[in-house]
Every structure is written in C-alpha cells, then in structure tokens.
Amino acid sequence: MATTSDIKNGLVIKLNGELYSIVEFQHVKPGKGGAFVRSKIKHIETGKVFQHTFNAGQKIDIQRVERRSYQFLYKEDTHYHFMNNETFEQTFIDESLINAPQFLKEGQNIDILVHDETETPLVAELPAYVELKVTYTEPGEKGNTATNTMKEATLETGAEVRVPLFINEGDLLKIDTRTGAYAERVKK
C-alpha cells in the first residue's frame, strides 16, 4: 500500500470506493501541527473536481489504469461499438461513458481509460478538437458579417452547433469537444 509521499499528478486512486485522478497536489508543512497534502482530485466517471486533504503518511490505494486507443465503428441504440487498434478486438461502451458522443463519427480514433484489474472501461475521451463537415445551415446574408451574430448549423454526425454567419454548407469546422462550441473554420 502506498502513502501520500507517492502522490503525483495523473495518479489514479481509490477513495471511498470511487476512482479519482490527482489533478494537482501540494505538500504543506505548517509551523504548528502535522504536515498534510492539499490536493485537487477529479472523479473519473463524472469529471467533477474536488478539493481533498490527506494527512502526511496516510495510506492511499493506487489503481492501475491504462489509456488505450480505439476506433469507433458504429452505434446501436445507446451502445457504441469500438475496435482496439492493437488487438483488433471489438467491444461496446454505453453512451454515458463517452464525454461528447454527439461529435463521434465512424472511423474516428479515441482514447478509452480501462481499469487494469477488472478490465472494465471507465471513460471514453474524444480528442479536445474534432474536425466535422457542415451538412446543413441557412445561407448567410452578404454584408452582415460585421456583427458577432451566430446561426445554427448541422454537422455530419447530426449534432447542432452555433456558428458565425459566414459558415456555409460543406465547410470543415474545428469543434471543441469539451464545450461543444465552434472553434474555427479549417482551411482546405
């Protein structure tokens, strides 16, 4: 069993029966009283970040988690089918484990965090930005691009995002998967 002296950024630990990732930590030794470790921990499944304080020398339960590359194959109801890029084994993951399923297109590679002991997928993470083509949007009015006005656009995955007026059908857009917002138009 490890102690708080083994804490480092990115480490996955089990705390109160839940898995957390260490985002940030700081060893504190006040002039009076015992030393402690002040940390920010991120819940693996929900993504919420919490403040947590460990007493110095406290035992922690380190968990082995692997990040594996998978290719998205197809969707069936609420299950998404993926293929491991190394072993070519197919697996399916529930929609609730994917951070932005509306931006997932066939053939796209994503990372899936897998708990080593139980071989269960914990969370599927799309890249921070994905490039998607606009399949439908209303045409913008000429000369009406000086304002910061936005319009709806439908992407090739079926997701809808707000885009500037100068975006047309067929344009390739860079979308931020963390916020679901338009980032920029990709030059061809």
How many discrete structural domains?
A: 3
What composes the largest sheet?
A: 6 strands, antiparallel
Number of strands: 16
Q: Any idea what the shape is?
A: flat
**CATH fold node name of the largest domain:** SH3 type barrels
Low-confidence stretches: none
Describe this structure in words.
By secondary structure, the protein is mainly β. It folds into three domains: 2-62, SH3 type barrels, CATH 2.30.30; 65-125, OB fold (Dihydrolipoamide Acetyltransferase, E2P); 129-185, OB fold (Dihydrolipoamide Acetyltransferase, E2P). Helices cover 0% and strands 54% of the residues. A six-stranded antiparallel sheet has the order 1-6-2-3-4-5, with no helix packed on it. Strands 9-8-7-10-11 form a five-stranded antiparallel sheet, with no helix packed on it. A five-stranded antiparallel sheet has the order 14-13-12-15-16, with no helix packed on it. Strand 13 and strand 14 (160-164) form a beta hairpin. It starts with a strand and ends with a strand. The model has no long low-confidence stretch (mean pLDDT 89).
What tags apply to this protein structure?
188 residues, mainly beta, OB fold (Dihydrolipoamide Acetyltransferase, E2P), six-stranded antiparallel beta sheet, five-stranded antiparallel beta sheet, 54% strand
Fold topology:
Layout: E1 2-3, E2 12-15, E3 18-28, E4 36-43, E5 49-55, E6 59-62, E7 65-76, E8 79-84, E9 90-94, E10 109-115, E11 121-125, E12 129-137, E13 150-155, E14 160-164, E15 172-176, E16 181-185
